[in-house]
Design goal:
The protein is α/β, with parallel strands linked by helices and 789 residues long. It contains 23 helices and 32 strands. The N terminus is likely disordered. Strand 5 and strand 6 form a beta hairpin. Helix 11 runs antiparallel to helix 14. The structure holds ligand MGD (2 copies), iron/sulfur cluster and molybdenum atom. The site of molybdenum atom has 3 residues, from loops.
């Protein structure tokens, strides 16, 4: 039987033709009819959490009636402030039965991307995949197989990938641009160098800068902490080109030209330096500001010229007492913050002096010209940040992270926090402050595989695969990693088409599934063959996921799919037998934060317990011990000397820059932020939510609309050399002249033509290869033009 994707959908929407279900036909209207409570109705309650990558992990109390999901309510957290749910969570009651569910294993019947499939049995699907994995591994080695995982999936453990020794990069290429710059200075300590203080701490601040951060939509169930702090008199300043939901509720909105944040941040640094608004004690005690830069090679001066570790070969500082160079960690030393000195005939100067010199050029007038923010506003921003008391520099991830100069933006954050002493401070914090990620954590156990099983070395970041020659012949796509994740849709499609076989494992038949040869129906988060599904940690709590529903249609859980593949490959004996075994292994840990938290106590406590962590909000680096070589906050990045970024220097965007010759052809900057209505590409298919969210649209300023003869609702073509997109436009002053906005996540079938990724830049900054996470995909660093379609 041939089921074309289009007919499949039509059948469902009209509700006239039945859907193919195991054991017969069931029409959609009957399936969706809610089951009311009643004497003969079997009602059950189970607890779970919501895992999509909004980061929230809301805890759900789910009621089923006669095996159908009837009600989702917030579960009660020990810290009751988190007992919330958003509209996306509530909408799961309907979305779980969405017409977009993949119902049976499917095999491609037409061209790749055409969307024609025929149903096949699980045995045929898994036999085919297992045989291909075996054959490819034997012929071409482990690197020829790529397992990709989307963010926030239930069972993201690459155990089978590891058993097979294949490539499995987890999420490389997104959310790491700022981190490249922040963690170089703060160190890699779990994520302490990446995330700000928990927003529960905002009430202790005086000023909170939400920088390219639409917190009220992207951290929606923590919005209360924004309002609590506001009620306590905290000043909120939003720096965003768009008049966002968060900007509308803040005390001040500073709109700037997209991609020019670096100029604003550098001018703030310069103002703080020029006016002496910095904290001398903090700089001398906790940072590398007194370290000495050698005039010969620009490296930091150390005790000797060897490559020995810092404890053998410490950095030197200039000691005020002895007037000589001394190890920075000598307890008697009183380091000078400023000055030029001669050590063994070599001229050196302090990092702080070099910083002062290098930042002088970033004047108010210069920054105002670049950012289009008035000089007075920039001055006010720097004053508020430096002088009003504890201040937060809370970056989002959808703004400055998604530009070619994101690492330098992160670096300026480290410098600003160091100058003002706002890192490791109650009411302070510098880093990412979105998606509920800043919280106390714990050290969990895990499932140990024998030593001989190791992942193959990753060839490149996920973002690079579409553009660079690589060994990949088999792509196992667990969740919608490709269509949604990566920039430049056409590059992604061209790359995927070169593979020998592509497998999509997802509950929903999205755009990526259409690019696959075999599509496997994964269980939704509510379903499993097992009573216990998984565990997670969020917002200082441990949460457990129970089975709520039996697997719908012919779906199988990710765990089961992995297990059945492993069985065919003779590897199943190494895997946990059930997800419960895995959860028990994870909870088996010496970490005092987990004391008393076992599977049994979790079950007794409705699947949610607070970690044994302090009652204080999580705050970064309160001990002022950093994960860097010197354990200090390091301001000078030796890895970046050749790139002239050892101290932060202005760098234009890669593409979306008015001086770029391409700007003459494509004069609009293309921004693709998230929305409260979706989590990336998820919930596009929630019919409840679509009653509020009218669908894809391109937002354009009245000035740009007028000059192109566009009026509200016109269908426009958005285009650049990478591709095009056809979509209705909305004329609105929310976006600046020179900028257009399309919320990310819509699937190709929701657009009139094209895909929102058809236009996005996937050429990362080559400089970032030197940095820990490699280049970030600069989605926002994209130019387009718009015309009436
Ligand atoms: N243009 C542009 N692109 C971007 C960004 C941008 O700003 N602009 N942002 C980037 C960022 S920051 C991120 S984090 C990524 C997010 O990119 P993705 O992580 O790819 O985003 P999602 O749409 O959340 O994808 C989740 C997919 O996994 C499936 N899924 C959910 N749960 C399960 C499960 O339990 N099992 C299986 N098998 N599948 C499951 C869902 O159905 C969905 O198809 O996108 C990046 N892409
Ligand atoms: N509801 C919901 N919540 C989510 C997610 C989701 O998909 N849906 N995804 C989660 C994930 S994976 C992430 S990464 C986070 C992201 O969390 P946020 O960073 O809050 O995400 P966005 O709203 O995409 O981007 C923030 C803002 O950056 C602005 N921006 C764009 N370009 C620039 C620029 O050049 N300069 C400045 N200053 N601002 C700019 C945009 O206008 C936008 O308002 O959200 C998480 N939370
Ligand atoms: S989408 Fe996020 S905020 Fe909404 S219910 Fe789910 S976890 Fe909570
Ligand atoms: Mo993200």
């Amino acid at each position: 039987m041939h089921i074309s994707r289009r007919n499949f959908i039509k059948a469902g929407v009209l509700g006239t033709t039945g859907l193919v279900l195991p054991g017969g036909f069931l029409s959609l209207d009957k399936w969706l009819r809610p089951v009311a409570a009643g004497e003969n109705v079997q009602e059950k309650v189970a607890f779970t959490y919501h895992p999509p990558n909004c980061g929230g992990r809301c805890a759900f109390k789910c009621t089923t009636r006669d095996g159908k999901l009837a009600l989702i309510e917030p579960n009660k957290w020990p810290d009751d402030r988190f007992s919330l749910i958003c509209l996306k969570g509530i909408s799961e009651v309907e979305r779980v039965y969405s017409i977009d569910r993949v119902q049976t294993p499917l095999k491609r019947a037409g061209e790749r991307g055409e969307g024609k499939f025929v149903p096949i049995s699980w045995d045929e699907a898994l036999d085919t995949i297992a045989a291909k994995l075996k054959e490819t591994k034997e012929k071409y080695g482990g690197q020829s197989i790529l397992f990709t995982y989307s963010t926030g999936i239930a069972y993201p453990l690459p155990l089978l990938a590891q058993l097979l020794g294949v490539q499995a990069p987890v999420e490389a290429g997104v959310d790491q641009g700022l981190g490249n710059g922040l963690e170089e200075g703060m160190g890699r300590m779990g994520c302490e160098g990446l995330f700000c203080n928990e927003s529960l701490d905002w009430v202790n601040s005086k000023t909170v800068l939400l920088w390219g951060n639409n917190y009220l939509e992207t951290t929606i169930t923590d919005a209360q902490f924004f309002y609590n702090a506001k009620d306590a008199g905290v000043k909120f300043i939003v720096i965003d080109p768009v008049y966002t939901t968060t900007a509308q509720k803040a005390d001040q909105w500073i709109p700037l030209k997209p991609g020019t944040d670096l100029a604003l941040l550098l001018a703030m640094i310069n103002l703080i330096l020029e006016n002496g608004w910095y904290n001398v004690d903090y700089l001398a005690k906790n940072t590398s500001a007194p370290f000495l830069i050698r005039s010969d090679n620009q490296k930091l001066l150390r005790q000797n010229d060897s490559d020995d570790e810092v404890d053998q070969n410490p950095f030197l500082v200039w000691d005020e007492v002895t007037n000589s160079a001394k190890p920075y960690n000598d307890p008697n030393v009183q380091p000078k913050l400023e000055g030029e000195f001669t050590v063994n005939g070599l001229k050196v100067k302090t990092v702080f002096s070099a910083l002062k010199e290098s930042q002088k050029q970033y004047t108010l007038a210069w920054a105002a010209g670049i950012t289009e923010v008035p000089e007075d506003t920039i001055r006010g921003l720097a004053e508020d940040y430096a002088l009003r008391g504890p201040a937060v520099l809370g970056f989002g991830w959808g703004g400055t992270d998604k530009w070619g100069n994101s690492d330098v933006v992160g670096h300026t954050g480290v410098i600003l926090g160091a100058l003002t002493g706002n890192i490791g401070r109650v009411g302070g914090g510098v880093g990412v402050e979105t998606g509920h990620y800043a919280a106390w954590g714990a050290g969990f156990g895990g499932w140990e595989l024998p030593e001989e099983f190791q992942l193959a070395e990753g060839e490149m970041t996920t973002g690079d695969f579409p553009k660079k020659p690589n060994s990949v012949k088999v792509i196992i796509n667990i969740g919608n990693a490709l269509q949604q994740h990566l920039g430049s849709f056409e590059d992604t499609v061209n790359w995927v088409k070169k593979a020998d076989i592509v497998v999509s494992i997802d509950p929903y038949h999205n755009t990526s599934a259409d690019l696959a040869d075999i599509v496997l129906p994964a269980c939704s988060i509510f379903e499993s063959e097992y009573d216990i599904i998984s565990r997670t940690t969020s917002r200082n709590h441990v949460l457990l996921r129970q089975k709520v529903l039996e697997p719908l249609f012919e779906s199988k859980s990710d765990f089961q799919i992995e297990k059945e593949l492993a069985e065919r490959l003779g590897l199943a004996q190494y895997l946990p037998k059930t997800p419960e075994d895995l959860v028990r292994a994870e909870l088996n840990s010496d970490d005092p934060a987990l004391e008393g938290i076992t599977l049994d106590t979790l079950l007794k406590n409705n699947c949610i317990m607070r970690l044994n962590v302090p009652n204080e909000p999580y705050r970064q680096f309160m001990d002022q011990v950093y994960g860097t070589a010197s354990q200090k906050l390091e301001l000078y990045y030796e890895t970046m000397i050749e790139d002239k970024q050892a101290l932060p220097a202005y760098e234009k965007p890669l593409e979306a820059d008015t001086d770029n010759p391409l700007f003459q052809k494509y004069p609009l900057m293309y921004t693709q932020p998230r929305t409260k209505y979706r989590v990336h590409s998820q919930f596009t298919n929630s019919s409840w939510i679509s009653q509020m969210d009218p669908g894809p649209r391109l937002e354009i300023n009245p000035i740009d609309a007028k000059s192109r003869g566009l009026k509200n609702g016109d269908i426009v073509e958005v285009f650049n050399d990478r591709g095009k997109l056809k979509v209705p436009c909305k004329v609105t002053e929310i976006v600046r002249p020179g900028q257009v906005r399309h919320r990310e996540g819509w699937w190709s079938k929701h657009e009139i033509a094209g895909n929102f990724q058809s236009l996005t830049n996937n050429n990362g900054n080559p400089r970032q290869y030197k940095l820990f996470y490699g280049p970030v995909i600069p989605f926002n660093d994209s130019l387009v033009e718009v015309k009436k379609a």
